[in-house]
Amino acid sequence: QVQLVQSGAEVKKPGASVKLSCKASGYMFTTYYIHWLRQAPGQGLEWVGIINPNGDGTSYTQSFQGRVSMSTDTSTGTVYMELSSLTSEDTAVYYCARGTVMLRTAFHIWGQGTLVTVSS
Amino acid sequence: DIQMTQSPTTLSASVGDRVTITCRASQSISTSLAWYQQKPGKVPKLVIYKASSLESGVPSRFSGSGSGTEFTLTISDLQPDDFATYYCQQYNNYSPFTFGQGTKLEIK
Fold first, then answer.
1. Of chain B residues 78-97, which have a CB less than 8 A from chain A?
2. Three-state DSSP class for residue A14
3. Residues 6+ away with beta carbon under 8 Å from A28
4. Cα angle at B42 between B3 and B21, to 5 degrees?
5. Among A19, A110, B23, B100, which is least packed, fewest CB within 10 Å?
6. A113 and A21 Cβ atoms separated by less than 8 Å
7. Contact indicator for B18, B37 with CB cutoff of 8 Å
8. What is the pLDDT along chain B (108 residues), one digit of tens a residue?
9. What is residue A54's three-state secondary structure?
10. Residues of chain A scoring pLDDT < 50
11. Could you tell me the end-to-end alpha-carbon distance of chain A, in angstroms, rounded to an integer?
């Protein structure tokens, strides 16, 4: 079945970087955009950005510009998100998600989430 | 950015009740609106997309309506499993996609 499986929890110090992974299976990997979102403890959902797995491009929300980078490995069906210059405000559960083949879409499929804790 | 505003923030209801949650967009988003259900410690689950389309596997007691800037999610005959936090999301403008702040549906 279609699923997104994310990497395990991370603990990082302020100023460090973290690279998360999201492995897709059960569908043609290059056909669907992958989105990254996050949810800080007790807070709502925040969209981080999007990547076209066929290598055509990325788009990031303004508040993450310069700190976030998304990439793909089509040989393994895996999408990566790297976030740098971490602060305590980046402590959150990070989700990857997939919609339809359209760019503008609801998120039908979600990964299980990865908890990133930033603490000195 | 398109701002999404949900009301109420918290809603208390009983099993069997019919409840409605409202979501307003700061500009027209046509019907590019989704609703998600999230329980504590769990992954958000898509309930409604395209304002009124029911996601596969979601009970028919959930329904959505609206277009432009005003949308509603209605749950009829509330069941114990329905008590959760609900978020609306616009996907008319993808940079960025934006969510409402959430509505917590509590047991009265």
1. 87, 89, 91-97
2. coil
3. none
4. 40
5. A19
6. no
7. no
8. 999 999 999 999 999 999 999 999 999 999 999 999 999 999 999 999 999 999 999 999 999 999 999 999 999 999 999 999 999 999 999 889 999 999 999 998
9. coil
10. none
11. 40
Q: Tokens in use for A12?
A: 């990082």
Rounded CA-CA distance B11/B13 in Å is 6
Nearest-by-Cβ selection for A44 from B46, B93, B99: B99
Q: Does A53 touch chain B (CB under 8 A)?
A: no
Question: What pLDDT is stored for residue A55 in this prediction?
Answer: 73
Chain B: nearest CA to A29, how far in angstroms?
A: 21
Radius of gyration in angstroms for the set of CA atoms belonging to chain A, rounded to a whole number? 14
**pLDDT at residue B44, as a whole number:** 98
Q: Which amino acid is at B19?
A: V
Say what the pLDDT of residue A62 is: 92
Distances (CA, A) of B99 to A17, A109, B45, B77, B85: 26, 17, 14, 26, 13
The DSSP bridge partners found for residue A19 are A82
